Amino acid sequence: MPAKQKIPTANTEHTIYFIYREWHTSVLIDAKTISLHSRYLQQEAANQRYIRIGWGDGNYFTGKRKTFGSATKALIASSHSALQVIAYAQPPFASIPPETRVPIVITDKGMRKLIRYLDKSFALDEMGQVIPLRAYVTDAGNFYQASGHYSLFSNCNTWSGRALQAAKLPVRSSLQLTAQSVFEQAKYISDYQQSLGMLMPSSEKSD
Fold first, then answer.
1. CA-closest candidate to residue 117, choices 141, 142, 155, 83
2. Beta bridge partner(s), residue 86
3. How far is the C-alpha of 205 from the C-alpha of 118, rounded, in Å?
4. 205 in a structural domain
5. CA-CA distance, 205 to 195, in Å (whole number)?
6. Which residues of 65-81 are buried (b: 16+ CB within 10 A; e: fewer)?
7. 18 lies in some domain
């Protein structure tokens, strides 16, 4: 578990949410903060309340090949990776079960580094622009080609773990291959911060 002495407890100006669903994890961030600091997410964040972002295999993630076989193949022969970006005009907490999300407070420096990490996760074309991908599923936000190679040892959960590390949180991402392994670390940090009265439990957060 994360070292308590390394968990942010001062100057924590921002709240993020770490979310898991089945074997996938993602990060939810205030859209206004994204607009201020992100180079590539400003359009997504415009006039929105929250932005949720995750990383995964391009074919499986976009729904082009949504089978167990394709998920298994992606672990050893992924052709490209993708970012999923979901924008919320209203707080989405009612649609995200409380047991699958935890709030964590981070410093302004941590937030800036997290957003920089997200920006670096976008693959760019020769003009320096993000590369949209076709979505084969509905109500799943937008997809973009991502940097990095998806594999067994570099999957959505190791990516999410590195996102938390970028936010200056003391989590381990190496060999943290399952959603549960990363979520447990995030929950430990959240529980500790809640015990200090720094934030409300996720089950009580409605906005």
1. 83
2. 52
3. 25
4. no
5. 16
6. beeeeebebbbeebebb
7. yes
Q: What is the DSSP string of 41-109?
A: SHHHHTT-SEEEEEEEEHHHHTTTT-SHHHHHHHHHH-S-EEEEEEEESS--GGGS-GGGEEEEEE-HH
If one counts the domains in the chain, the total is 1
pLDDT in tens, the chain (207 residues): 889 999 999 999 999 999 998 888 999 999 999 999 999 999 999 999 999 999 988 777 776 555 544 445 444 446 688 999 999 999 999 999 999 999 999 999 999 999 999 999 999 999 999 999 988 777 789 999 999 888 767 788 999 999 999 999 999 866 667 889 999 999 999 999 999 999 876 544 444
Q: Of 176, 146, 123, which is closest to residue 57 (Cα–Cα)?
A: 146
> Residue 207 falls within a domain, yes or no?
no
Query: Domain range holding 185?
Result: 4-196
Residue 186 resides in a domain? yes
Q: Write the single-letter amino acid at 204.
A: E
